Amino acid sequence: MPKHEKNDIELLRTWTLPSKATLGSSVRAHGILLEMRARLPVSSKKSLVLESGELVLGMTADARSEFNAAAGVVSAAMKDIETLPVIPREIQDILTIKPVERHRWLADGRLPSAGTRTVRLAGRARQITFHVFDPKVVEELLDSGAVDEWREDDIAAAAENRRRAAYKAKLTRSLKKKSDEEATAKSETAATNLSDWEEFDRDGLLR
Q1: Where is the region Disordered (predicted)?
Q2: Which helix or strand (DSSP H or E) is residue 27 part of?
């Protein structure tokens, strides 16, 4: 919270974010903060901040009822904080993966979806829908090093695809060359098999 506001704070409460919840990600920690704020009344949202891995709720003394209500909401939510679904930007930071990798592994089933969520973009009428992920699954992937194996598999698959594409292109060129040669041979054969060619030429009928 801003320094000029800290001097007015008399009501303060903190909650430590467990590593099981953040999975070692600052992006995930910030996501948890936003999730907590979303559950609070508009007037209380900015009173909750993230500082050094802790959620901090601070208000002035004359806002005790509001403070107690907000603290109750956060405390209740903290009980299930470790089961909060992981959103795309969080899983990318936790597993150190790129968006293209997330899309590819989600599409081929290696990265299982825990469902979808639809949200409205801030200040816009447009909504977006995206997949979310089970934090337990994400933790297992992180601990097992599965991402490195998937990348190696993708590299091998890409090399195989290039080999097949090169073979197919070579085969196509070979078949086209053979077809052209056969067409040329047929044309030459047809020209040499004209009946009575010499007689026409000798009699001057082609002049």
Answers
A1: 170-193
A2: helix 26-38
Per-residue pLDDT tens over the stretch 9-43: 789 999 999 999 999 999 999 999 999 999 999 99
| Residue 105 near residue 158, CB atoms below 8 Å | no
DSSP 65-134: HHHHHHHHHHHHHHTTGGGSPBPHHHHHHHHT--HHHHHHHHHTTSS----EEEEEPTT-S-EEEEE-B-
Read off the amino acid at residue 160.
E
Which residues neighbour 39 within 8 Å (Cβ) at sequence distance 6 or greater? 73, 74, 77
Tokens 């150190």 belong to: 96
Half-sphere exposure of 15 (CA within 13 A, CB side): 22
Q: What pTM does this model have?
A: 0.73
33's CB contacts (< 8 A; 6+ apart) are: 48, 49, 50, 55
Q: In this structure, is the dihedral angle defined by the CA atoms of residues 99, 105, 109 and 110, taken in order, positive or negative? A: negative
The set of residues, in sequence order, having a beta carbon less than 8 Å from that of 88 and lying 6+ positions away, is 99, 102, 130, 131, 132
